[in-house]
Amino acid sequence: MRTLTLRGGARVAVVPAEWCDAFGVVTHGRVQLELRDGEPGPVLGRDAGFWLRGTGVRALRNPGRRTARVRIVTPRATTGTRQSTHPYASHPMIEDDMNSTNDTGAVAGPASGQTGHTHRFRRLAATGSVATLAAVAATTLAAALALAVGVDFEVPDGGETIPLSGFAVVTGSFSVVGSLIAAVLLRWSARPAARFVWTAVSLTAISLIPPFLSGANAATITALLGLHLVAATVMIPTLARSLHTRTN
User: Fold this and answer.
1) Mean pLDDT of the chain
2) Are residues 137 and 101 in the same domain?
3) What is the dihedral of CA 210, 214, 218, 220, to 10 degrees?
4) Residues 127 and 76 in one domain
5) 128 and 23 together in one domain
6) What keywords is this UniProt entry annotated with (predicted)?
7) The whole model's pTM is what?
8) In angstroms, rounded to a whole number, what is the distance separating the alpha carbons of residues 240 and 244?
9) CATH code of the domain in which 101 resides
10) What pLDDT sits at residue 115?
């Protein structure tokens, strides 16, 4: 028998040969199963047991900040017990088997976990930067086309006209904020993509309210609403896809 220790945020890849017929029991903290397609799987709490043979689980993650530990019973320790290929199931620890084996330790700490997190954060940052530039370009171009067809973008309060540079700055700023939200969810959420989409869509809906309160004419209000949606259409799907994709 051996003990796998996962420090906060750590991730360890599942090597099929090491888990063949082995049975794991979470003895401390929480452990999340990472599925074959990279999607986050169920989170197992204390005393939950699981087999990994034939399940397609490709990694174990610690989704929290507290250290998690998994006792892994070797095939010799599980002789005579019924085996299952179900990826997770609650199961009491087999004290007699565990007490009759030697306990060895394996630690997945910041070195292994941090490498994966760093790679994902770098990829998310690169994707967010490209998406931000694309959103700025698309919004500025759309605003220029609106000006060309007669939209004045004049806000009655102060009688000022919104310049093209203003659209670029505002779009860039909010796109960066969206990327930061995605990074926070990638670090702390078990389902970052779904939570990001929900958060981003909600914020986009809220952002559609100010144009109606600006006192501008109907053409300007319509154009402002369209520009908000242009930026959201570029940023939200791009960042969501990046959050969906996990690295090995």
Assistant:
1) 79
2) no
3) -80
4) no
5) no
6) Membrane, Transmembrane, Transmembrane helix
7) 0.55
8) 6
9) 2.60.120
10) 54
